[in-house]
Amino acid sequence: MQRRLCARFILLLLGVLAGCGGGGGGGSSLPSPGSTSTPAPSPSPNNSSSALTLSTPSLALGGTAQANTFGVSESGYTGSFTAQLDPSCSSIVSSVAPDVAPGPSATFTVTTGSSAGTCSLYVSDASGRKVALTISVAQVNGVLQ
Predict the structure, then answer these.
(1) Taking Cα atoms as reference points, which of 72, 88, 86, 87 lies closest to residue 124?
(2) Could you give the domains of the chain?
């Protein structure tokens, strides 16, 4: 009798253990530890563009409220260009117009402010390309030239 009870117990134990084993079960949507996922890249407004270029590397201006233009281009670019003055330009340059212009080419106008000096204006595209234009405003004998 004791042998039968022992045999039944062993069979029961084997059945329980077989039910607890692998079997695949349902998967988890959580990533396994140490794995990383890479987000899909966002679409770029210029899939076949070339280098972002300025028509001139610098502008030399003189006199208060004097204006001059420069161009920017990027072959095949269909997004917008953004012009941004360096904070050091606050009194050297009174304005840049427009501040945003459509590609593949655009013309910007820089107007001098009330002080002489040198500063930078940056033009960028939506893909993160950036070029710098050096702006110099001269002053002779207390008068902007």
Answers:
(1) 72
(2) 53-138 (2.60.40.2310)
